[in-house]
Amino acid sequence: MSQPSLVTENLTIRFGGHVAVNAVSCAFNPGELTVIVGPNGAGKTTYFNLISGQLTASEGRVLKGGEDITRLAPSARSHRGIGRAFQLTNLFPALTVLENIRLAVQARSGHGWRFFSPASRLGALKQEADQFLQATKLSDKAHMAAAELPHGDQRKLEVALLMAMEPDIYMFDEPTAGMSLDHTPDVLNLIATLKEDKTKTILLVEHKMSVVRALADRIIVLHNGELLADGPPDEVMQSQIVRDVYLGSSGEDAA
Ligand SMILES: Nc1ncnc2c1ncn2[C@@H]1O[C@H](COP(=O)(O)OP(=O)(O)OP(=O)(O)O)[C@@H](O)[C@H]1O
Question: The ABC transporter domain covers which part of the protein (predicted)?
Fold first, then answer.
C-alpha cells in the first residue's frame, strides 16, 4: 500500500472549554474518496479548517506526504497541494469564466512562464484553460462574467479553478448545497471524474445520503468532535452506533 497522502494525528481543537475536534487520527490515501458525515455541530467543518489551515490545532498534527504542516498558513498548505473549494469565495465575479480559469492556471504555474515569449505564454495559458473549461462543460459560457452565471455553473467554475491548481488533495464542503436538481449530476460527475485519476485524495463533507452513496469509497463519522466510525460505506451506514447517533437524529437526506 502506498504512503498516505494526508494524516491527522490526535488532531484536537478547543474553543474555551468546548472541544470541537477531539483527538481525531485518520490517514487518507491517494485514489480514495472519503465522505465525512455527522450530525450538525459534529465538528466536520472544523476538522476541514484544521486540515486546510483556517484553524490551528490545540494539539495533534497534520501531515501532508509525511511533512508536518500543522503550523503552516492556509496559503502554504495550498502550495503544498491541498485544494479546498470555498463556496464561491474564490471567484472573481467581474471577470469572465475564462479569465478566472486563466488566473488560476497562472497562479499555479508561477514563475515558470517567464521562460516563454508573451505570445506563446498566452497561447499555452489558453490551451490549459480550455482543457478545464471542457472538463467542467463551461466552454459555451467562457465569455460570461462569473457573476452572471447561474449558481450551479458558478459551483462548476469553482471546481474548474480548483482543478487548474492541480492539488493532490481535494476538499469539498457540501458541493451541491443550494444547487438545483438539474445541476447536481454535473458536479457529482465532475467529482467522480477526479476519482478516476487514481493519484488524487478527495475529502467531502456531505449531509445528503444520495451523494454519499454515489461517491464514497469510505465514510468517516464524526460525533461531538470524535471519530465515531471509519470504513466502507455499507459497513459504516449499517453499524448500530451510526444509526443511533447519526441517522436516528438527522434522518435520510437531511438538508
Ligand atoms: N470559531 C469557533 N468558536 C467557537 N466555537 C466554534 C467555532 N467554530 C466551531 N465551533 C463549534 O464547534 C462545534 C463544531 O462545529 P462545526 O461547524 O465544525 O460542525 P459541523 O459538523 O460542520 O456542523 P454543520 O453540519 O452544522 O455544518 C460546534 O459546536 C460549533 O459551535
Answer: 6-249
